[in-house]
Every structure is written in structure tokens, then in C-alpha cells.
């Protein structure tokens, strides 16, 4: 007895990308020679077997018949399906196995789709109509790939890969039938049965039935909504009748063949055909229709049989119909807009005297699409902290207060504590490290940047430590939090004025403005910073954009306002001290110990940015670091020629870059595994 032949799987290889590696495809499969293709066991009268190199064709004579033997039901097909057996003989005597389900399987007589000399493959060529006659009305083509192996279990070696195309012709001769092809139910055999819902109409076409809705639909209150179907008692069902085709006496329901007769409706079978029930509405408390939102579709495959009892039922016809239900929502009275909720973010805030932070109020409306009213801000203790119309809180003295946002009678709040908190150590902006020669200096293409060194390349020195650096002794910046929002001119100009005032007390005309967790800053914001600095008596100003986690600084970007004001677009200010995807990729392909800095900015910043980051350098040689810019979109990386890096007293690593995306910090030049 023949067993079910398992499908062959082709293994494919995939490439990583242009920068980090790839693989080679399998060699092209050769056509199986005709002399190694033959029929095996099964012979069907009237079915012709024709072969040539790499090609098999099953075609039909005008009259065909099936020998009265069991039709391979153990192959997993239906009992009425007939299979022809194809034997593909091995290419040489040293071949010992063939690939089945992705694994080499030994050639033997065990029922696994092999013989001692080759591989067996089974193809459906017939469909029984009665005890002998059969036919397939449709044509079909299969592509078969065969991989041959030498050796023994545990040590197989691929020898060759071959291909054969198998085609089954369409048959229209004596005894042919549409029983083997699933066709669409004609429109004239689809109708609504019993249940009528006013405002719902049934539209039918070939193989389609659609329940369409008017503007209003009503459910007759004196009818039971088919709760005996075992469905939700709140659902309203409409009954679709699929009338039987000629000569049909039974239909398959739930895997069983059921005789068509007058029976209880829940069986789904009547003397007229097959009944199917579809939920078209939800019933309200007073038998009104509450509606169903969302279109839905069902596909019914129907198997019709002929015969008088279960002992002689024979497949007559396969049909299909697609049933759809439109989307329906009952008309409702419009709601009066109202404020459902007001939320303030963050809900708690800790400031030092003189520090400012901007709060955000989110107003949720009912309905959601309604326009929200304006928000008013207030402080429960103006002496501790004040708040302006934009939600900017300024700490004035030690203590606590509650900042409230009010809209439409609803309130949200933030608890504010003001005190002399010990500040978190920040990256030092002004050290002047002595450059140490790199033990393995690398030439710069074109000679424009000089050789790389500990403090940078090309003798350009350290941008923060040069003599005459206007920021070198400052560190006089003021701090403000703008968590999760774009930096606004109103916030930054206020902080700039305070920063310049503090700098002037130290006889300096250059100042730093520290902003925490802002999303981005536009050229207009930097332009307004310069104006505010000049108005306050200063000359130069930098933006120090901090990214914090748990109140601790993880990264800081140093941005010169004069340069940024001339950019063509916004600068993204966020930075993270890891990139999980890039780390996984580089760990896979390179030997080096690496750290990663992921900027929110995609592509170029448009200017040189100095960054200070808190990364773990314990297992890395600081004097041998290399910096690479990695673009995940193109999966490519390039060496940053002059990073001007150093580590400050607080452990922050400083470097310069013009590109965003991800910076890979490597212990030496990248070395492939």
C-alpha cells in the first residue's frame, strides 16, 4: 500500500546587505533525463503517460476507466480521488538518499516515498463518479525539485539537484463531470428564507449574496430572533436558502453528509436545499435594531451528493458562495461636546530655585473629535512656584505647590517640590587633554584631515579646550525641562536671558542654555536665542541638549546657536546610549568591543555637533577608540576621520560628528570575524 508522499522544500539563503555580508544561491537544477522517468504500479485505462527530459504529461483519451482497486486513499486525499505514481530513478548507483521535507531520506522499501532505486511521487489524475468511471475536468501543473545525496545517515553529501515539470491535461471526454471543480452558486438559487427584517434587502449575483441596509431598519417584535441556533440572544439573524442543484439528495454539514429532507431548521438541511443563518443586526431592549458596525464576509463551500442512503452517497457537485454584510450604525442624536478629562504631564516635578520647566496639558473631549476649550493654569502657592499662560513653571523658593490646569470644569495637576537638590554630575565642557599618539595611526583619504589621534586628527586640537574658547571657563548655563516636546522660542529666550545674566556676573559674554529631553529645535528657535543673548548684553550662546533617564544625564549635545540658526531644517535633540539592533548586527560580524550612541537625527545634522555620552568603556582601550557613523537605512558604515574625543573627569566620553543615525564606538579598527 502506498503512503502519502511528503512535499519537497527548497532551501533558500538570504544576504545581510551591502555592507555586512551575504550568501550564494543554489546551483541551477538540471532536467531529469527521460529514461529515468517511468510509471510505477498504477495503470489507468485511457490515461496517457508521455515523457521527455524534465517533463511529464498526463493526457486523456476519449474514454477512460479506473480498475476496480482501492484508489490510494491512504495518500491523504478524498476517497474518490485517483492517483498516478511517478518513479524518478536515481542518477547513479552511489546515490543513497533523496531530500524529503528538507532532510535526506535513505532509498529503501519502507513506505516513505522512496524505493531502493529512486523516489516516488503521486499525482491526482481522476475523480470517481461511480464504481469505474471517473474524470478530472481541470488541468494542473506541478514543479518538482529533487535533491540526491551520497553517503550514509549522519554523513550525507549533496550530489546533484534536478527538476521535473508534471502537467495534467484538462479532460472533457466521455464521463467527464464538474464534480471535481468548485463552481459558483447561480444567483437564481440564492434567496432569503422565512425571516424578514424591514430595511434589510438581499442582493444576489453569481456566487455572491449581500445583505444591504437602508437608512433605518426595524425588527418585528413578535418574531423570535433565532436564539435556538445557539448564538447570542441579542443578535438578529437572517436565513439564506441555497437551493439544491438537480439530482442532489444530500449535503455535507460539519463534516457529515446529511440527507435533504424536511427537518428542524437548526440542522441546516431542508427538502429545498441548505439553510445558513447570518447575524445582520443587534436587538435593542425594546426589540428595536441597535445595529452592527463593520462589514463582514463569509465564504461557504458546499458539497452536494446524490444517492438514497449513507451507503451509496456519491459526490455530485462542489459549489461556493461568498456572503457579505454591510456596515450599519443606527442614527444617534449628536452629543453636546464636553470635557471628559484633563491630564497634566509630568504629574510630579522637582526644581531648584531659579529653575524652570514646561508642563503639558492634554484635554480629552466627549465626543473625541469635538474642539477643546482653552486651558487656564494656576499655582496653589505662587510664592513657591509661579506658572504662566503657557504652563511654564518657575521655582521661586523652597517648598511645595500644586500646579493645576483647568478646562471645561475639569482639572489636572502636577505636584511641584522646590529645594536645593544636589545636582547630577554633568559632562565637563572645558577640559584640555593632552593628545596621545595612536599606536596605529590611520591615513586620511586625500590627506585633508591628517592622521587620527587620541584627541582628534589633523592637529585641529580639542574644540572645547582651545585657548580663547569663549565657553572654556563658563559652565554658567541655566536648566529647563521640555520633556517630549519641540523646543519653543518662549522657553529658550527666557532661559537665554538668565544664562547671559549669570555669565556677565563672571565677566563673560558667552553662555550655555541647558534643556532637558526636548524633541527638536528649529532654526527660528536658535535665531531667537541669539537675539535674546544680544539683548541681554551677551555675544555668543550655545544650546546644551540633555537626554536623561531616571533624572540622570545619559547624553548631551553641544550646539552653537549661530551655526544652527542658518540651517535649512530642525535639529532632533534626542540621543540614547545604545542601539540594540546595531549591537546585534555588529556583534555578529566583528570581533571588536563596541558601544553605540543612537541619535534621533536621521542623516546629517547640517553642522558639526559635539556630544558627551555616558557609555561603559571599562573593557576598552580609550587611547585606541575608533568612531564610525552607521546608517541603518542603507546598512552601511563609514569611519569618522576627526572625532576629537576625550573622557572628562565625570566619565563622559566626548566626540564630534556631523552625522546623526548611530555612532559605533569601537576598540580599534573594525575587524571581521
Automatic annotation (TrEMBL):
Coiled coil: none annotated. It holds the Pfam family Big_2. Residues 338-417 form the BIG2 domain. Residues 1-24 form the signal peptide. Gene3D superfamilies: 2.60.40.1080. This is Ig-like protein group 2. Residues 472-483 have a biased composition (Polar residues). It comes from Harryflintia acetispora. The keyword NADP does not apply. Residues 404-483 are annotated as: Disordered. Residues 447-462 have a biased composition (Gly residues). It comes from the Bacteria. Keywords: Signal. Residues 421-437 have a biased composition (Acidic residues).
